[in-house]
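I would like you to sit down with the record closing this message with an eye to the fold:
=====
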Amino acid sequence: FSTMAQEDGSYPRLNASMLHSRQFVGKIVSLVGCVESFDGTNIQLKCADNATISVHSGDAGFNLPPGTFVELVGFVNEDNTVTLFVTRELTNDFDLDIYNKMLSVQHSPKFAQFF
């Protein structure tokens, strides 16, 4: 994994397949998706690419009902799970397909100069 320092306040926006590439281990990242389940300490998040990831929230003290659209910001662990730092609830009409297309453009070397 990369040992380069991460710029303060800057974190990549990812989908599940980007997360599973392992190039973000040890980094703070943003993932947007729909909550599939939440047991009070672990969130199963269906990401913009329709794949599911696990996010550890610790003893969260909040509730995320299934079907809630969220942005989750956290630290990528060695096992490709994410340790949650920040949760932002999004509107229920958030379009994950359009967001996933934006991620493809954002991560394309062809458009790197813009992001």
The longest strand covers residues 28-38. The mean pLDDT is 90. The radius of gyration is 14 Å. The helical segments are 16-19, 96-106.
